[in-house]
Amino acid sequence: MADEALFLLLHNEMVSGVYKSAEQGEVENGRCITKLENMGFRVGQGLIERFTKDTARFKDELDIMKFICKDFWTTVFKKQIDNLRTNHQGIYVLQDNKFRLLTQMSAGKQYLEHASKYLAFTCGLIRGGLSNLGIKSIVTAEVSSMPAYPDTGLHPKTPRSQPELKPRVRCSTNCATQVLR
Amino acid sequence: MPRPAHRKPDYHKINKDLFVLTYGALVAQLCKDYEKDEDVNKYLDKMGYGIGTRLVEDFLARSCVRRCHSYSEITDIIAQVAFKMYLGITPSVTCNNSSRTEFSLILDKNPLVEFVEELPAGRSSLCYCNLLCGIIRGALEMVHLAADVTFLQDRLKGDRVTEIGITFLRKLDEKKYRRKK
């Protein structure tokens, strides 16, 4: 859908804009990630409000996580989460084998370190959504591999292997004692 | 007839909201980062320029527009095809001068400001939607047309309508732009 292109481009510009105006260094990198994550947080809060205006009440945490994996992810990224795992004690691992915001990046390990910049906003999105559903959480993401293209000099449209996004979401029900970022 | 208690949310609308909310979060962050309105406006314009240079390819791929022979044709296409495709609105076009190089796009509805009540205090000269000006400018430059794009009127500042002015300057390249078939 056309809207998606606009959002993707806006997101990429936001990431490069935030980093362009910052200096080099570990501390600055952390600040930029925090900035992007906070923006995602705001958006996630607003989005989940509009989303759940007329939906049924959620039974429990797992129900909420399933909602995030199916409806929320489908609306935002046009596909469902591929795999959801949990230890039933507050940690959930969502796995997306073809993360929309990374599919346009080139193959190879060279850009793997930069992938985290493009995940910060989404982590904030999830955290904001959960926050407005009453769950305080920490969301982190990791990418194990970018799409890998065969070395033919051409760039086929469908990559062979997919990037994996595995945000680890730790949810705490005892909000008072949990100290969060 | 009373509304049913649980309704499926309008996913299409929510997807549009994602872009609008993200843009709002971006502007809010920029207002925190920059004190002067001119700086925020300039930054938004620059971001829009970066987006526009890439968006035009997406637009041309999706829309199959024919080659244009006049500035007014181009402005019509921006209003009736591009705006409709990406924002779902169709601004009306007026020509402002006899040599047909200055045009205005009048927006009755502006989806970007859907959640904006008013400009923040002390930010009276903020052009909230300046990203749009940058996008149009960047897109036109990629088809070898230099143009000045600014907001002439803005509903958020108290005007009756929102008006974007496009002034075409000289052509950037002597070679006519040919769309690859």
TrEMBL record, chain B:
<keyword id="KW-0931">ER-Golgi transport</keyword>
<keyword id="KW-0813">Transport</keyword>
<dbReference type="InterPro" id="IPR007194">
    <property type="entry name" value="TRAPP_component"/>
</dbReference>
<keyword id="KW-0449">Lipoprotein</keyword>
<keyword id="KW-0256">Endoplasmic reticulum</keyword>
<dbReference type="GO" id="GO:0005783">
    <property type="term" value="C:endoplasmic reticulum"/>
</dbReference>
<comment type="subunit">
    <text>Homodimer. Component of the multisubunit TRAPP (transport protein particle) complex, which includes at least TRAPPC2, TRAPPC2L, TRAPPC3, TRAPPC3L, TRAPPC4, TRAPPC5, TRAPPC8, TRAPPC9, TRAPPC10, TRAPPC11 and TRAPPC12.</text>
</comment>
<dbReference type="GO" id="GO:0005794">
    <property type="term" value="C:Golgi apparatus"/>
</dbReference>
<keyword id="KW-0564">Palmitate</keyword>
<comment type="function">
    <text>May play a role in vesicular transport from endoplasmic reticulum to Golgi.</text>
</comment>
<keyword id="KW-0333">Golgi apparatus</keyword>
<dbReference type="GO" id="GO:0048193">
    <property type="term" value="P:Golgi vesicle transport"/>
</dbReference>
<comment type="similarity">
    <text>Belongs to the TRAPP small subunits family. BET3 subfamily.</text>
</comment>
<dbReference type="GO" id="GO:0030008">
    <property type="term" value="C:TRAPP complex"/>
</dbReference>
<dbReference type="InterPro" id="IPR024096">
    <property type="entry name" value="NO_sig/Golgi_transp_ligand-bd"/>
</dbReference>
<dbReference type="InterPro" id="IPR016721">
    <property type="entry name" value="Bet3"/>
</dbReference>
<protein>
    <recommendedName>
        <fullName>Trafficking protein particle complex subunit</fullName>
    </recommendedName>
</protein>
<dbReference type="Pfam" id="PF04051">
    <property type="entry name" value="TRAPP"/>
</dbReference>
